[in-house]
Every structure is written in structure tokens, then in C-alpha cells.
Amino acid sequence: MTTxxxxxPLNKLGFTLVELVVIxxxxxxxxxxxxxxxHDWMLKSRAEAQIRQIVADVNSIRLRAMTTKQRHSIELDxxxxxxxxxxxxxxxxxxxxxxxxxxxxxxxxxxxxxxxFAGERxxxxxxGMLQDIGDVLPIFLEYDGNANQDxxxxxxxxxxxxxxxxxxxxxx
Length: 172
Fold this sequence. Notes:
Blueprint: H1 17-68, E1 72-77, E2 80-85, E3 97-98, E4 103-104, E5 109-110, E6 118-124, E7 137-141, E8 151-154, E9 159-165, E10 168-171
């Protein structure tokens, strides 16, 4: 005699529709959180890279002024900066030879928390010393994130990346 066993629906292998929807919702939530975190991380990385590039470019032009024994300048605009070279001491700051077409920036350059650079020029003498800036010339980025470096301090004989603190840039 053969007996038949009835299989209960609770003993079936697999997932119910409700279980699948819950898992998909969890995955979607995790993906949205990681996407937001990734976007913030990318902005932070770009801001830090821009400050490192400005510091490297200023150090490079300072070294070029020393090795060629010629005046050089940096022109700062909100969306780019340009370097110029001068062949003589008498040459006007407006007449210098462009070294490059300008370095475009991802984050606009600011003088302080409220105003942007607009064509200001600063000169390096043949010794690589920055002229007529007072104690320090801070360059801030239009960036409100939490980057380790989001500003640069140009001084007479050095340049450092730093962290914005109100209207000052604290060296890092």
C-alpha cells in the first residue's frame, strides 16, 4: 500500500515576494547612502587636489624665477590663474609673456569668504620672492565641504596648503 504525503506550502524551498521586496529595499537604501558618500568624497578629493596643484604651480614658478633670474607673476581670477614671465626689469607687469594659457580651476578662487579674485597680479622677483603682499596672501576655494586642505597661503618666500577657519587659512 502506498501512502501519499501532502507537501505543505510552508516546506517549499525559495523566497516569498515579500522577502524579495525587503531585500531589494535594503540594497537600494545602502546604494543611495554610498552614492551620497562617494559624491562628497569626490568633491573633497577635487578640492584637495586643486590646492595641491596651486601650491605646486606657485613653487614651480618661484623656482623658475630663481633659475632664470627673471621676474614672473601670477594673475588670479575666480575661475583660473595665469603665470607670466618678464625679460627685463623695466617691462610692465601687463606686458609679460604668458607661460601658459591659464590653469582652469574646478572650485572658484576667493580672496576671503565673500569676494572672488578678479585679475589681481602678484609679482615674483628674480630671487623667487613674492612682492607687495604684506604678511600672507590667502587663496580660498569656493567649497564648503570637509577637505583636509581647502586654501593656500602665499608668503614672501614660501607657499603652504591649509585649512579654512573663518577668513583665515591655517597652515597644514
